[in-house]
Amino acid sequence: MLPKADMHVHLEGTMAPDITKRIADRNGLQLKPGLLAASGAHFQWEDDGTAQGALMSFCNAYDDVAGVLRTVDDYADITYDYLHRVAGEGCIYAEISISADHALQVGLTYPQLLEGVTRGYEKAKQESGIEARFLSTFVRHYGVEKALNAAKLTHDNPHPLVTGLNIAGDENALTFDDFIPAYEAAGALHRTAHAGEAAGPESVRAARKAYSCKRFGHMVRAIEDENLMKELIALGAAPEVCVSSNMVLKVFPDYKSHPLRRFFDAGLKVSLGSDDPAFFSTSIGQEYDIARDHFGFHDDELLQLTKNAIETAFVDEDTRADLQRRLG
Ligand SMILES: [Zn+2]
After folding, report:
1. Backbone dihedral region of 319: left (phi > 0), alpha (psi from -120 to 50 degrees) or beta?
2. Which residue, 11, 24, 53, 155, is most buried by CB atoms nearer than 10 A?
């Protein structure tokens, strides 16, 4: 099986309907009516036909799903469930965005969140050898104050598995500069940022300038700006590309217009991500299948996506070398 890496995935976005219902049941909670699609296979949200509207409505549905979590065990279970499933698809490494804010909203502390995800990670790793790291993630539309609080929690509770920072949510809420103090306060961690998804190429420029990051969540709309593309190629920029997410959230109308192939051929350090697999009816295995079936990636090119992922992963050098040995 081709070794794979999921370089862009949000923990609560992995919560498949079955485990979400199970956790809601044991916590005595009901799923919000209409949250689950009629098929029962994935979650759904309102779609007003625009990328911005779809993103915000999706963010609300995401919060509703995450809202059934209550305990350290819940976080351990969803982390294990996700890692166990993707290990079965050949995934050797996952980088998972976690959110202090989502834990706080259900009455857990940040250390409890870390306790849960660590336990889930350790169980999955013991069983399958899958490796993972966590990114402490600011939710942009929750505002600067909450981001600063999440940054302080991250700083005050250093953890060997939490190796990076991310900012997600509504790309059109506030500015990257507004969150520089949060990135600074969180400590010396690796940095990525969602940019160039709902917002245009200027957002990639702004994220680069604000955080000096070389990795970007999505970055796909950089394709609209030729000069920016040249800068990003020269920089060795690493876009975490999530094709199914982009399709569902209408960033591009079809595979043909999606820049995955153009990014790869231009020499960007492209890797793949499932983003929120329970919402976008996908998995990291399916994202590799899509690259092969819709973008003509051969096996050696698919392997190169994983090589790019491991090269740009937020891990220590021993772990990187260990993962590289598993690439064959
Ligand atoms: Zn994302």
Report:
1. alpha
2. 11
Q: 243, 255 in Cβ contact below 8 A?
A: yes
Please report the DSSP string for 196-243 in residue order: SSSS-HHHHHHHHHHH--SEEEE-GGGGG-HHHHHHHHHHT-EEEE-H
For 120-174, the pLDDT digits (tens) are 999 999 999 999 999 999 999 999 999 999 999 999 999 999 999 999 988 788 9
Catalytic residue among 12, 197, 240, 287: 197
96 C-alpha to ligand 1 centroid (Å): 10
pTM for the whole structure = 0.97
Domain boundaries, the chain: 4-313
49: left (phi over 0), alpha (psi -120 to 50) or beta: left
Please tell me the CATH code under which domain 4-313 is placed. 3.20.20.140
CA 169 to the chain's CA centroid: 11
User: How close is the Cα of 57 to the center of ligand 1, in Å?
Assistant: 14
**Whole-angstrom distance, CA of residue 294 vs CA of residue 313:** 26
